[in-house]
Design a protein that fits this description.
This protein is mainly α. It has helices at residues 4-41, 44-51, 57-65, 67-70, 75-88, 92-104, 107-117, 119-143, 145-154, 169-187, 192-213, 216-250, 265-277, 285-292, 302-311, 317-327, 329-354. The protein folds into 2 domains: 4-157 and 214-354, no CATH class; 168-213.
Length: 355
């Protein structure tokens, strides 16, 4: 019989191996390259035009809140993109909105939720994710307004793209479109007989664009930025995922199931807290809630289910460890608390309305 410590180590190893197999090649690698490209190729003014503290809020928060519908990614892949945008000088509000909305409004996850757990819960998840992303971003901007004031002070004469770009705009757009296409196709459920040729063609397109429209120094900068983000973020994700696998062997998720039988502020808050601790790769949260917590069999109520759906993909112990490295302890703590509280509130409202 395996002793508890050995069992925990094996559980941590299994979780880590599954994570590496499911996410590194198809999700994390493309995401790091996209993040590095944002840092290396996108002009600072182009980013700040939409995400800077001085940008029109309806534009910056609107774009950030629907980002996940374009980038079908989970929390592990949105992190390097968030780090790139934050590093580039984004206002903290739009950056946090982007961070939350990326995995929360994931099109694949929304469709899967509606299909497996019901249309009502899928729709509630989509609407709540957009609204919560904007609200949380606005609150973060208000609480940490000194962050944005410091950005303004460092660039008082900022202008936005009045000059001519030497490179055709379509080349840059095509480059990013190809990278995003590689990410989306690679992370999809399509068979590899379709995935491989599509990814191969898109990779060739990236190579051609780099050769004919980008300078060698720019490509070198891209590689440096990609490596810089990867070495900061990837080890934290590995350690956090392994630790959570060990934790699950001592405290399996089924332990919380009896507390989720009805909608109450206690049950939705507990569900949001559980979501803030557990690492749930995108799409995996659906069978966890449907089967492990018993939503499809009527054991788990709708309120706690929505709270867990909203909090789980957006925050987790590994994610918070990475976010801490990017924007510090205080901002990370406030962000985590806001996600948990608003996810619980949304779950409570939904569960009360649906009865």
């Amino acid at each position: 019989m395996t002793d508890p410590i050995t069992g925990a180590l094996l559980a941590g190893a299994d979780t880590l191996i599954s994570y590496l197999a499911e996410h590194v090649l198809t999700c994390l690698v493309p995401a790091f390259f996209i993040a590095g490209a944002i840092a290396a190729f996108v002009k600072k003014d182009a980013i700040l035009k939409y995400f800077s503290p001085d940008a029109k809020k309806s534009v910056s928060y609107g774009i950030a809140s629907i980002s996940g519908t374009v980038l079908a990614v989970c929390s592990c892949t949105i992190l390097p993109m968030f780090a790139g945008i934050y590093k580039k000088g984004s206002g903290i509000g739009p950056a946090v909105t982007f961070l939350y909305a990326g995995p929360a409004i994931n099109v694949l996850a929304i469709i899967y939720t509606a299909k497996v757990l019901g249309f009502d819960l899928g729709l509630a998840r989509a609407v709540s994710a957009v609204l919560l992303a904007i609200v949380i971003g606005l609150i973060m901007a208000a609480v940490f307004r000194k962050h944005d004031e410091a950005l303004r002070a460092t660039a008082p004469a900022r202008t936005y793209g009045n000059g001519e770009d030497e490179r055709p705009r379509w080349a840059t757009l095509g480059f990013f479109a190809a990278l995003v296409g590689i990410l989306i196709v690679g992370a999809s459920q399509l068979p590899w007989t379709i995935k491989f040729p599509v990814v191969y063609i898109l990779t060739l397109a990236v190579a051609v664009l780099l050769i004919y429209f980008f300078e060698r120094d720019e490509v070198t900068d891209w590689g440096y930025e990609t490596w810089d983000l990867a070495k900061k973020i990837f080890p934290i994700l590995l350690i956090g995922t392994f630790a959570l696998g060990m934790l699950a062997s001592f405290l399996p998720p089924e332990t919380f199931a009896p507390y989720f039988g009805e909608t109450s502020i206690e049950s939705t808050l507990l569900a949001a807290v559980v979501g803030g601790i557990l690492y749930m790769p995108t799409l995996l949260e659906v069978p966890i809630i449907g089967t492990t917590f018993g939503y499809t069999s009527g054991v788990m109520a709708g309120g706690p289910a929505l709270a867990l759906l909203l909090a789980g993909p957006s925050v987790s112990l590994p994610s918070l460890m990475v976010i801490y490295r990017v924007m510090g302890a205080k901002k990370t703590a406030v962000y985590a608390v806001l996600v948990i509280l608003f996810s619980a509130l949304a779950g409570l409202v939904y569960g009360t309305i649906m009865g």
